[in-house]
Automatic annotation (TrEMBL):
InterPro entries: TerB-like. This is TerB family tellurite resistance protein. It comes from the Bacteria.
């Protein structure tokens, strides 16, 4: 995964945990594991990116239109079927970790639409 793809994935993951307006400890731990597993290859400090990613997610989560636009914007960097499937798998794993809600299912459906090659 390229660094821009890692950053987009992290942004999608942080947004995904705001989908049901409830951040569980399980989701938080899995998100942290995903950040570690995907690595980081940038001069920009990872901790600063994470803080900014959460701030962006909180802002975007305020409206359905913002969520939809943000998902589509961040999904554009995943151009291959393999990359799109990986993103869906990682996000689905986090959403399922504490039980899925209708809001999380809707978020996931929007993400699937934004990643058409993964179907």
């Amino acid at each position: 995964m390229t660094q821009p793809q890692r950053e987009a994935l992290f942004d999608l993951l942080t947004l995904s945990i705001y989908a049901d307006a409830h951040i569980s400890l399980t989701e938080e731990r899995l998100l942290e594991s995903a950040f570690i597993a995907e690595g980081w290859d940038s001069e920009y400090p990872k901790s600063l990116f994470i803080d900014e990613s959460f701030a962006r997610a909180r802002e975007m989560a305020e409206s359905d239109d913002s969520i939809f636009d943000y998902i589509n914007e961040r999904a554009q960097v995943f151009t291959t079927k393999t990359a799109q499937k990986e993103v869906l798998g990682v996000v689905k794993g986090i959403l399922k970790s504490d039980g899925e809600t209708p809001e999380e299912n809707e978020f996931y459906s929007l993400l699937v639409q934004a990643l058409p090659k993964a179907k």
